[in-house]
Each structure stands twice: as C-alpha cells, then as structure tokens.
Design brief:
CATH topology: Four Helix Bundle (Hemerythrin (Met), subunit A)
Bound molecules: fe (ii) ion
Strand content: under 5%
Helix content: over 70%
CATH architecture: Up-down Bundle
Structural class: mainly alpha
Order of helices and strands: HHHHH
Distance between the termini: 36 Å
Number of helices: 5
C-alpha cells in the first residue's frame, strides 16, 4: 500500500518533514517496482537509496536532538540503528533470493515492513520531538544552509 502523507505526521513544518516526505517517496518506489528480470536490481537500488538517505536523515535528526538536549535521544537513535540493520539484512536476503516466487514474497514483506516502520516511527517516536522543534529551528536552518553549500560545491 502506497504511503500517503497526512497532517498528523507533521513534526516541524521544516527540514524533518521534508526528509520524511523524501523517505516516503523512496519507500513508495519499492512498491512501484514491477515484476520482471530487472526487478532484483531495481529493488536493490531502492534499498541502497533508502540506506543512504536514511543514514543522512537520521544523522540530521540526531544532531538536532543533541543540540537541544532531547531527553529521549538514546532510545530514538536505537530505533534508527535497528532500521539500518534491517536494511542491511534485507539487502543480503535479496542477494540470496533466486526464484520469482521468493522475490514476490520478499517484496511484499519489505513493503509491509517499511510502511509499518516509517509510519510507526514518525507517529510514535518522531512526534515526541515536537515540543523541541522551536529550539531546534535555528540549528536546523544552519544545518540546511551547510548542506546546500556542500551540494553546491559538489555540482
Ligand atoms: Fe527519527
């Protein structure tokens, strides 16, 4: 099932929400991969993209949490690490998946897992940051400018 953004997922009307929109778009790509000979490679690409973007996003969230002394930072980070481990395991499992039937099962399982994880994490864990987003805002702006400058230098 495709994930749709809803107002109740709003954390900061800023960079965290923007990152969540991007994560949702990447997860929805996973579901959009059609069965066929190139499906394993395309699924692997989406997992890698999710690993890269997830790592960057989790880093941004955890930095902001540290800067405002968010009291639940350690538990929050554990959830992020758990997802990163699950993605690495999924990448390995996909590499071992040979038959079309196993691939379909893998894809279905991963779609359910990713949808549940993201929605659950945003609603139950990320929303706990809401009382801190005002304090995070100036840091978030600085981080945003820094990332934009790094991207501009890389182009
Ligand atoms: Fe988070």
């Amino acid at each position: 099932m495709t994930i749709k953004w809803r107002e109740g997922m709003t954390v900061d009307y800023g960079p965290i929400d923007q990152d969540h929109h991007t994560l949702i778009a990447i997860i929805n790509k996973f579901e959009a991969v059609k069965p066929g000979p190139d499906a394993p490679a395309r699924l692997a690409e989406v997992i890698s993209e999710l690993e890269r973007y997830g790592e960057a996003h989790f880093g941004r969230e955890e930095t902001l949490q540290r800067l405002v002394a968010f009291p639940l930072a350690a538990e929050h980070s554990q959830q992020h690490r758990h997802l990163m481990r699950s993605l690495a395991e999924a990448r390995a499992e996909l590499a071992r998946t040979a038959s079309a039937k196993d691939l379909a099962t893998f894809r279905e399982h991963m779609c359910g897992f990713l949808n549940d994880w993201l929605i659950d994490h945003i609603i139950k864990t990320d929303l706990l940051m809401k009382p801190y987003v005002k304090a995070m805002a100036p840091h978030a702006e600085l981080l945003g400018n820094l990332h934009a400058a790094v991207r501009a230098m890389a182009e």
